[in-house]
């Protein structure tokens, strides 16, 4: 019983982490309301992703790890490209401040790379280990 609980808790946390990464990219792309409204949107996205991870266990493992990996890769690239994604994510995490991204062409290229890497990660994981087996 404890093992099953910890397994489900781990799935929820994996989904929640993926939901948080998705929220950060959504907030980088569009202006979300500040204050309590933004926190409510963030919590809703995280909880939905966590619940989806529990409901669709194996499929969501591939999706969540692809989202997290793609997000980490893009933020790592941004450290060198200096387009503001990493700086703004760091600022929001430290102070709860607003995103103020300079949205030049490289910013949108990095966001596109995030989505491409996410899709590639999902495809590779589902091809290597098909779900439902």
Describe this structure in words.
The chain is mainly alpha-helical. It is built from five helices and no strands. The protein has helices at 2-29, 36-55, 57-81, 85-95, 105-128. The two termini are 23 Å apart.
- Separation, N- and C-terminal Cα atoms: 23 Å
pLDDT average, as an integer? 80
Q: Which structural class should the secondary elements be placed in?
A: mainly alpha
Q: Level of helix content? A: over 70%
Q: Main sheet, how many strands, which sense, barrel?
A: none
* Strand portion: under 5%
Instruction: Specify Rg, calculated over alpha carbons.
Output: 16 Å
What are the secondary-structure elements, in order, as H or E?
Answer: HHHHH
Extended strand count: 0
The parts where pLDDT drops under 50 for at least 5 residues are none
Q: What's the SSE blueprint?
A:
Layout: H1 2-29, H2 36-55, H3 57-81, H4 85-95, H5 105-128
What's this model, at a glance?
The protein is mostly helical and 133 residues long. It has helices at 2-29, 36-55, 57-81, 85-95, 105-128. 81% of the residues lie in helices and 0% in strands.
Which terms would index this structure?
133 residues, mainly alpha, 5 helices
């Amino acid at each position: 019983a404890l093992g099953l609980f910890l397994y489900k808790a781990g799935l929820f946390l994996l989904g929640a982490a993926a939901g948080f990464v998705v929220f950060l990219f959504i907030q980088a792309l569009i202006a979300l309301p500040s204050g309590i409204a933004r926190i409510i949107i963030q919590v809703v996205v995280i909880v939905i992703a966590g619940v989806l991870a529990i409901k669709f266990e194996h499929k969501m493992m591939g999706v969540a790890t692809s989202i997290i990996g793609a997000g980490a890769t893009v933020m790592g690239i941004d450290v060198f490209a200096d387009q503001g994604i990493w700086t703004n994510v760091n600022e929001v995490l430290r102070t709860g401040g607003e995103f103020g991204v300079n949205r030049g062409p490289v910013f949108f290229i990095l966001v596109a790379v995030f989505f491409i890497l996410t899709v590639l990660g999902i495809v590779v994981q589902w091809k290597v280990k098909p779900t439902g087996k």
